[in-house]
Design goal:
With about 500 residues, this protein is α/β, with parallel strands linked by helices. It folds into two domains: about 20-390, 3-Layer(aba) Sandwich (Rossmann fold); about 400-500, GMP Synthetase, Chain A, domain 3 (2-Layer Sandwich). About 35% of the residues lie in helices and about 25% in strands. The chain has 17 helices and 26 strands. β25 (about 440-445), α16 and β26 form a beta-alpha-beta unit. The longest helix is centred in the first third of the chain and has 17 residues, at about 45-60.
Length: about 500
């Protein structure tokens, strides 16, 4: 049963946005002897991927799972992750994606929210899977082991392109995560858009170093390589030095990494000596892309930095392409995707209604009421503007403001200004409490060289940055904390700022 009204389904099939193809169909059509994955567990062909996922699907059936049941998959990255996802699709199960670094409280919340059984390896990040299952209150625990699969596989896939196939959570940086419903068609919608934006050829090699359960990781590793038969290079967990080695070893042409990850690559001691000449395109995003660092990545690798602007809930809203002028490509979110029907509301908030949008949150009427307007348009929470040439700029976030003496200061604008200092390698700006003004902007930075707040202010003043967009606190960290989705964990930084400046 579709998650969407029949009128929308019919319209999206009619205009070609959606199709009946499933990931199982793509995998079965690809060259059986071609490489599907270069993964921590080894190299797998498309035939092996197809057969192993069919045998794991049969294992699910033999264990008593029925179509529509939910299975929460807790794994580090690698081939087994995608085999488990595809096996669930073949068995008709809904996968609940859990980030590999999720803590027990988050796992327990997701299991309660979805009613899912928990699937792990025998050991997950140094802990027995059975111990995790017990600590998180799992009503059932499934051990994933490719060595003990049934000899025969499930003959027919039991899930269609319009069925609920995945429940992925928000990254959990503002409390316990909400659960987003996805169909295959909402995730497949990224494929042709990415192919066109990057002008993909027949022989691309895609490296996705993101956590697989989230939107960016799902389309870049599970969907697009299968759609086009590209080998996917996978990592267990992101490590900058190892990623550089993998790009060299497998001659990666398309890299997919969130902003924090590509900045960590730039900051890695091995970046200067790594042979990255094979890279043509890097898709990044997931959070603000600092133009100076993106430009540096292009200059040092020769590849083109691209991004989708969107979210787990909204899907792709706009995209930059290899044909965009560099200045537009590096300083805007690209041109809106026409079928997503972007509209700016009176407060500047971006709203959309198109084939990439999810059907909303699972069993959460209050959250869905906040996500969707009565007319069905999805609210992003981002504030933006479209210029005369049709390029979208994200100018702030409804909830990401520092309210200083009654004046709203955009954290994004302050981050953009601070990131332009040559000593700043990475930055995140949050509100710090203040007894007089309510809040002040606090910049957490990773630096290449010593930096004081006075030095930073001198630089901002020389660059013509208005004083309202200057940070009033500066905190240096060796690295910025990351949430389970790979983005900067602003909730952790806000908590630190509250403690650090409580007595200011």
């Amino acid at each position: 049963m579709s998650e969407f009204p029949a009128s929308k389904v019919d319209a999206y099939y009619a205009d070609g946005s959606w199709s009946a193809d499933t990931i199982a169909d793509y995998v079965a059509r690809n060259d059986p002897s071609g490489i599907a994955f270069h993964a921590p567990e080894g190299t797998f062909t498309w035939r092996e991927y197809d057969e192993l996922s069919s045998r794991l699907a049969m294992s699910y059936v033999e264990q008593g799972f029925a179509p529509g049941d939910r299975l929460a998959v807790l794994l580090t990255g690698g081939a087994l992750t995608h085999i488990a996802y595809l096996a669930a699709q073949k068995a008709g199960l809904v996968t609940v994606g859990i980030g590999p670094r999720a803590g027990d409280a988050e796992i327990a919340h997701l299991l309660r929210k979805t009613g899912a059984a928990l699937a792990t390896r025998a050991e997950h990040r140094g802990r027995p899977g059975t111990a995790i299952a017990a600590a998180c209150g799992a009503h059932r625990h499934v051990l994933l082991d490719l060595e003990t699969l049934p000899a025969r596989g499930l003959a027919e896939a039991r899930m269609g392109a319009d069925d609920l196939f995945f429940l992925n959570s928000t990254s959990g940086t503002t409390g316990l995560p909400k659960v987003v419903r996805q169909t295959l068609n909402t995730r497949k919608y990224f494929g042709p858009l990415a192919h066109a934006a990057g002008r993909f050829g027949p022989d691309e090699v895609v490296a996705s170093v993101l956590p697989a359960p989230y939107g960016f990781g799902l389309w870049s590793a599970h969907v697009v390589p299968a759609m086009y038969g590209y080998p996917a290079v996978l990592t267990a967990e992101f490590d900058a030095a190892e990623t550089l080695r993998l790009i060299e070893r497998h001659r990666v042409t398309v890299l997919c990494a969130v902003t924090a990850q590509f900045i960590m690559l730039l900051n890695s001691p091995g970046f200067a000596s790594a042979d990255l000449s094979s890279l043509r395109v890097m898709f990044t995003g997931g959070e603000r892309v600092p133009p100076a660092r993106a430009r540096e990545f292009e200059e040092r690798t020769g590849c083109t930095v691209l991004q989708f602007y969107g979210s787990n809930e909204a899907g792709p809203i706009s995209v930059t392409t290899v044909d965009d002028p560099p200045q537009r490509r590096l300083t805007t979110a690209g041109r809106p995707i026409p079928a997503m029907r972007l509209r700016l509301l009176d407060d500047g908030q971006i709203s959309v209604d198109g084939p990439g949008c999810s059907p909303g949150y699972l069993d959460d009427d209050a959250a869905n009421a906040a996500l969707f307007r009565p007319d069905g348009r999805l609210l992003t929470g981002d504030v933006g503007a479209v210029d005369a040439d049709g390029y979208l700029a994200i100018t702030g976030r409804i909830a990401d403001f520092i309210i200083r003496g009654g004046h709203n200061v955009s954290a994004l604008v302050v981050e953009e200004a601070v990131a332009g200092h040559p000593a700043v390698a990475a930055v995140a700006v949050v509100a710090a409490p203040d007894p007089v003004l309510g809040e002040r902007a606090c910049a957490y930075v990773v630096t290449r060289a010593p930096l004081t707040l006075a030095d930073l202010r001198t630089h901002l003043d020389a660059g013509g940055v208005g004083k309202q967009n200057w940070p009033e606190h500066l905190v240096e960290l060796p690295v910025l904390p990351l949430g389970t989705g790979g983005k900067v964990d602003k909730a952790a930084l806000r908590a630190d700022a509250a403690r650090r400046f409580a007595q200011a």
